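Reviewer comment 2.1 asked that we show a complete input and output for one of the modelled complexes. We chose the S-adenosylmethionine case, as it is the one discussed in the main text.
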Amino acid sequence: MRESDYISNTSISYRKDYGQFFTPSIVASIMAKWLIENKPKKILDPAFGLGVFYKEINKINLQYQWHLTAYEIDENILSYLDDISNKKNLNILNQDYLDSDINYYDAIICNPPYLRFQKFINRHNVLPKIEQQIGKKLVGYSNIASIFLIKALQQLNNNGRLAFILPFEFFNTGYGKEIKKTLIEQHLLKQIIIFDNEKDIFPDATTTICILLCENNQLKQDIKITKIKTTQEIKDISNISNYYHHKLTNSQLPHNQKWTPIILSLVSPQKIPEGFCKLSEYGTFKRGIATGANDFFALNKSKIEQLQISDKNVCLCITKSNLIKEAIFTDNELELLIKQDKNIYCLDVKKSNDKTVINYLKLGEEKGYNQRYLTKSRNPWYKLEKREPAPILFGVFNRGRLKVIRNFTTAINFTCYHGFYPNILGHNLIDKLFIYLISDLGQEIIKMNKRSYGNNLDKFEPRDLNNSYCPNMEQFNSIQQQEIREIIKVATIDEKKAILMSNQLIKNIINR
Ligand SMILES: C[S@@+](CC[C@H](N)C(=O)[O-])C[C@H]1O[C@@H](n2cnc3c(N)ncnc32)[C@H](O)[C@@H]1O
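Response of the prediction step:
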């Protein structure tokens, strides 16, 4: 049965529960061709799905006996495999791969399920077993794809090859450090393939992905970096080992550093200009207030009046990303939102003995808001985190240009924005930082730390922003305050023009 039939017969939530996203056959083909170069006899696919890797290996028509062992946890998907299920060189085990015993293979090929570990049903049973098998504690491993990789690496024979699809973000995570250490110190990692126009190549993927090619040959070889831009480009690749754009030594990929900025700085046209420093030198981005029940905590003027909640028990707050449309947010814009009766307030209980607020909280409890995941963990359930108004706001999710706001109001913000909180050094640089962040160069450099959600949607965690690069103090000091004032003024009426002016200013300080 064809993949499209399976997809149309199966709900997206079912597929999500099992992490069922399929590898396009052209991608599976380059992985399979590379995998079989050492003539492996025993091959493993730990997450079989509809068997795209088996099919691609079969197409190569190997002139020797080989056998593929496959694991697939979902019985339902296996019922769609009439065309290959009784092949002699294929043994599909309807089992949890993570619960399987350790056997050894000459080649392993896999697109593992990307599932948060909390979602993985069998986690309590399998963890101790895998930890024993690999001799390591798996604390903090939040995605089971990485556990598939750890286990598979353990099962690779000498000179065995492994081709694995993984979320690109894995290279930046804390738990990824240990795997990166193994990949580098044991000289397993040979090539990393990343994709530019991801949605075209992997229409199905919900996260930025990459392919790792590993070989257990103990040879100290450079690591090749390949960036693929189009589907046509993949079709034209005859041998992926010879198709790469950069080579890195092992020491250029330290396991305790994030790899995506290192790799992206190689393959993206944008380089980090000389002298730039980490943005964290000037302060920190923090996520906004997580209420756990925005529809209860976010309020508008008429609701406050109707409930007769006193001013003391509310505060000004940006409760939704789209409330702010322009790069400069002043009291004028805020006033307008209040007039339009938008949810621009947040319940902030300071006087809990106020009768009106007691009534509203009661209403919330009746509706079960106090029993939500976050609210349940707070004492009292309606007490929110403390946050000062942030002078720069940064959109958590962005499509295309990154949303950067210079906030001149006293409004705090929910989690739709990350807020920048300057330290002593950053205090006088807020406007300059803002100008940098809206400039094309600033945007490109910040994007090097993005987490793609596919479909051009990029997500940023506060630490992605804090680790981004920006001009150093000397470079910032060379900008005149007057120039900055001018750009901010222009930005209130013509954002595009302000961006052009910022571009020029940033270009000047780099060239100086
Ligand atoms: C990302 S899909 C890849 C399918 C196929 N190999 C491909 O590349 O198109 C992952 C597959 O692993 C299966 N799976 C999820 N958890 C598993 C587990 N613990 N053990 C074995 N298979 C699992 C899912 O049902 C799904 O079919």
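Residues 18-23, 47-49, 52-53, 71-74, 77, 96-98, 111, 113 surround S-adenosylmethionine (CB under 6 Å). We note this here for comparison with the apo prediction described in Section 3.2.
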